[in-house]
């Protein structure tokens, strides 16, 4: 192990916000000196004259599954953007594969140059209507706290459970605190008394704030606010006032869900810092949020600063404003040079966990009969997609069951099926959806929040069968089929959620899938796979399709597809 | 359990520094709501119209032993001043009684209305020259982390051990981190490379800073700076610049060592806040240091703020500036009303630990022979006290051994003895001291940092015997004797360090002892008991007396009392 001197640079001091001319001495994995060290103190000298030395950025809340990449591939994408640590919630893979999914993510991220911290998924399954691949109780989660990379309990979405004092929910929270870990929140639009009730459980952050008023109330009541800027949810502009005092010191920066194409085109945490700077806010303040604030939020004692005793996760940068990263050091080792990622050893998961995540479909090949609607009646409930939103509403209309089993492309009434794929139950929900706009063919996906059952939308049963069965044969992914053939596909063989392919490849596959779906008639204003991914999530109003049929989200009750007597 | 509404007040929000008109709802031990709650939400309403509602203050570093009070009595003194939590290092009692001493402090503070957090004494014994009552290794300390009130490892004074990587020192530090606890520092005047080396161990605070430059370097390098204002060490004035940004958010307020008379006359953390305000600094900033900053430093998740889910430790105050406290709530229960402490149940220590701390003298009654100097020689080393300082220097002079065994009151050369009292070893160091100024009589004490052996200074052997033996019969304390009789005394039967008497009584006893010692000739500029308490501590330069004789602090070697051949 040698001593490395970074000589001639200017350190961004995140404790004070000052820029300090100082040399930085690194020994092995840690920073051992900041000050007037010279070449005589070191075995190696790296001249960084005129450059900035910045702590590596931390993403305080991310679902790796949403990037569709393995932790190693995500590392290759994120490190050149200066992210040296992420706090990941493996909520999606846990809903498919349970403990094996969490273990797989821990194993596949062990020893990566980018540190992957894990928050334990708090809500598996996400709702009582979800038929997920696993149920994780407090007893299941507890042993994971033995791992130092496990920082706490991830976003607690079960507001009702928290407020009602549900024993398993409270045990999960109590366990996190007993292990001196933190509990993240997830409670959009909660305020006043409702918020107070939720906070009683000691939930100390939220990443769902969309307005300054909402965020300021959270900060005043002791929560950390995670300013989220991902692919779908983009809260930065709305939350710019938080970059001013007295709020900025209680904020961090997160992406939550960001797709690979956006990561490649736009960047990661660096892009949020850059955007804040362009919007007239202090880049230093944004960097503090992305470094030492994240460390404080998660009680990481030696991360997030360029100081003696801190982990040598740091960035060599040319200037403050562009946030462009030249070189990156992770635990003292250069991992990015001139913007290019250097090779690193990839971790391998244990066989048992790898097999589990690669074999996550427990379902027989489907036939046209599987998509026949068995209920009878004169009118039916159609799920209506609202453009650009995840909200849906209910449209009650007549369908002609004798013609194409009720499918009516002219009125954009397509068939929708959600097929349970974890437990071989044969459960399925079949109905109709409006607003997708396909004129022919069918689409299918294994990404369907939060249980990730098989979901299919089509203009005819035959193409639905083709698309669905292709998902099965790939072990997961997104498929577009037409005229009895697959015309575009993106394999996601890891739990049906992630790929083992490089980011550029998955981004290209994703582009082709989108192109294909629009070629089949879906208007450019609609993202069918995005809508499809949320049409089964019975927490977003108002009408959703689950493996057990339609759910009225507002009343949290199941409702029948067909309505026989409209006067009732 | 009833719901209590504090109605009509203004909350000091320590997250933002704002003052907010809000009602506060308390249920049992915690704050459950802050906002527009009304009488209908509560069982009881307390009208605090026009009053401030402030989080209770936290003392981030205190030795309870220095107050000479039991934790319960200290609670009675501190609560009316608004201190609802202290972070105590039982270093002194641990040096006398080892694990039993720590357990005694934990037991005697269990369930008190003022929360007593404990940091584990890191350096028992404090130096290799110390003959303490116990040696505490990492193995001894580790089990204490099972107690949730144990927040970490206390002030790491062993700079050499840290830098050299002494295995037991490193194990103590590693254990604290492994239990997700913090490590406090103690490294006065350390800077630059020496500081960097010390910080590598992950030592995250210091309370010994005396100049803004020293403190700012600590903050820039990631330490929390504890601004100390006690009885002897008074750093507030020197550190006032820290109350400004960008430094204030990395500071907390501590007393370290404060005597009961000062606590009664002056107050506790409130007095530091008040003084900062009088010096022109923001009282709100000072309150933030005394509350939420302390909570952050020690990673206390639900302490230090008036917010939902936080412990209902709060103060009802009339105004911001005087920091006067009207009522105090601890865990939701009123403990101070109109400035008067309310009765509370006192904890009782386990018999075994109580017996250990109350029987801490293992030494036979002393006779004049015990104080005879056995070495012979023509010249000798006299410890010279420097007025108003704990530093000493060496004065080499001739003494007439045939007359009063070398004592020479005219030249203020008095006899000094340090007698081992823990292990019945019979070890003792006897020599001479200059600068105390006694004209007759003798003084003795069991408070003698950090091993707290029996220490005696006298103008004649007979009075030394009287004073020393009175210490033995009291089981510890401070004594003044003259003409063969005790003329003033302060019993400290708990480990020879603390009293079970009320604060006012010990303050009065202390006043009488001081009066007596000055009546025997010690000038008003000298505090003989203070100097005596540190004359055995071989870390403060330059000549000290231990149970094994004189130590040259600068060379860390023993030196003989008598010098036979001055040319050598």
Structure description:
The structure is a homodimer of 568-residue chains. With 568 residues, chain A is α/β, with parallel strands linked by helices. Chain A is built from 16 helices and 31 strands. Chain A is globular and about 85 Å long. The termini of chain A are far apart.
- What's the multimeric state? homodimer
Binned strand content of chain A: 25-35%
User: Which bin fits the share of residues in helices of chain A?
Assistant: 25-40%
Radius of gyration of chain A: 25 Å
- How many β strands of chain A by DSSP? 31
Helix/strand class of chain A: alpha/beta
Helix count of chain A equals 16
Q: Give the largest interface pair and sizes.
A: A-B, 48 and 48 residues
The pLDDT mean of chain A sits at: 96
Q: What's the overall geometry of chain A?
A: globular
Largest sheet of chain A: 9 strands, mixed
Features:
alpha/beta, seven-stranded mixed sheet, 568 residues, homodimer, nine-stranded mixed sheet, globular
Compact description:
The structure is a homodimer of 568-residue chains. The first copy, chain A, is of the alpha/beta class. Chain A is built from 16 helices and 31 strands.
Present the secondary structure layout.
2 copies of one chain form a homodimer.
Chain A: E1 3-7, E2 10-12, E3 19-21, E4 23-27, E5 30-35, E6 44-47, E7 52-55, E8 57-62, H1 64-67, H2 71-78, E9 83-88, H3 91-97, H4 99-109, E10 115-120, H5 138-141, E11 150-156, H6 159-164, H7 167-178, E12 182-185, H8 192-199, E13 205-206, H9 212-220, E14 224-228, E15 251-254, H10 260-266, H11 269-278, H12 283-297, E16 314-317, E17 325-330, E18 333-337, E19 340-341, H13 351-358, E20 379-385, E21 392-398, E22 413-419, E23 428-434, E24 442-445, E25 454-458, H14 461-474, E26 477-482, E27 485-491, H15 503-519, H16 528-534, E28 543-546, E29 549-552, E30 557-558, E31 562-563
Parallel strand pairs in A: 1-6, 2-7, 8-9, 9-10, 10-11, 11-12, 13-14, 14-15, 20-23
Antiparallel strand pairs in A: 1-4, 2-3, 4-5, 7-16, 16-17, 17-18, 18-19, 20-21, 20-31, 22-23, 22-25, 24-25, 24-26, 26-27, 28-29, 29-30
């Amino acid at each position: 192990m040698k001593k490395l001197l970074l000589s001639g640079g200017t350190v961004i001091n995140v404790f004070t916000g000052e820029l300090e001319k100082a040399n930085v001495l690194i020994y092995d994995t840690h920073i051992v000196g900041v000050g007037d060290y010279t070449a005589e103190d070191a075995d190696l000298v790296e001249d960084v004259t005129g450059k900035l030395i910045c702590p590596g950025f931390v993403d305080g809340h991310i679902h790796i599954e949403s990037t569709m990449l393995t932790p190693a591939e995500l590392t290759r994408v994120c490190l050149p953007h200066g992210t040296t640590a992420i706090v990941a919630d493996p909520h999606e893979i846990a809903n498919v594969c349970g403990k094996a999914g969490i273990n797989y993510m821990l194993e596949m991220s062990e020893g990566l140059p980018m540190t992957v911290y894990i928050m334990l998924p708090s809500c598996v399954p996400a709702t009582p209507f979800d038929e997920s691949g696993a149920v994780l109780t407090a007893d299941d989660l507890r042993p994971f706290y033995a791992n130092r990379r496990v920082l706490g309990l991830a976003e607690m979405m079960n507001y009702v459970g928290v407020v009602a004092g549900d024993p398993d929910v409270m045990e999960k929270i109590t366990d996190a605190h007993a292990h001196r870990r933190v509990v993240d929140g997830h409670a959009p639009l909660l305020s006043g008394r409702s918020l107070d009730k939720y906070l009683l459980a000691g939930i100390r952050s939220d990443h769902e704030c969309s307005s300054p008023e909402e965020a300021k109330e959270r900060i005043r009541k002791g929560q950390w606010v995670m300013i989220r800027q991902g692919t779908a949810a983009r809260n930065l502009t709305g939350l710019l006032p938080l970059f001013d005092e007295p709020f900025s010191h209680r904020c961090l920066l997160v992406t939550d869900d960001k797709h690979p194409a956006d990561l490649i085109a736009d960047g990661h945490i660096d892009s949020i810092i850059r955007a804040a700077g362009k919007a007239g806010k202090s880049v230093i303040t944004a960097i503090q949020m992305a470094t030492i604030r994240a460390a404080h939020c998660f009680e990481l004692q030696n991360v997030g600063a360029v100081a003696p005793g801190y982990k040598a996760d740091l960035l060599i940068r040319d200037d403050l404003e562009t946030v462009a990263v030249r070189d990156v050091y992770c635990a003292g080792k250069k991992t990015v040079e001139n913007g290019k990622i250097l090779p690193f050893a990839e971790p391998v998961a244990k066989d048992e966990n790898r097999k589990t995540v690669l074999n996550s479909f427990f379902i027989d090949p489907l036939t046209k009969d599987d998509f026949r609607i068995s209920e009878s009646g004169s009118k039916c409930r159609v799920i209506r997609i609202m453009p650009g939103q995840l909200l849906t509403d209910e449209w009650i209309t007549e369908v002609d069951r004798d013609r194409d089993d009720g499918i009516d492309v002219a009125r954009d009434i397509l068939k929708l099926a959600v097929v349970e794929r974890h437990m071989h139950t044969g459960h399925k929900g079949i109905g109709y959806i409006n607003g997708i706009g396909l004129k022919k063919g069918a689409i299918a996906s294994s990404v369907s929040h939060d249980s990730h059952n098989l979901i299919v939308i089509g203009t005819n049963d035959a193409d639905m069968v083709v698309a669905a069965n292709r998902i099965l044969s790939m072990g997961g992914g997104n498929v577009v089929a037409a005229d009895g053939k697959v015309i575009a596909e993106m394999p996601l063989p890891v739990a049906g959620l992630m790929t083992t392919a490089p980011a550029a490849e998955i981004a290209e596959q994703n582009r082709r899938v989108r192109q294909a779906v629009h070629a089949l008639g879906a208007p450019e204003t609609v993202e069918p796979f995005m809508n499809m991914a949320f049409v089964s999530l019975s927490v977003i109003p108002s009408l959703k399709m689950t493996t057990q049929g339609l759910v009225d989200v507002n009343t949290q009750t199941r409702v029948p597809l067909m309505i026989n007597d409209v006067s009732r």
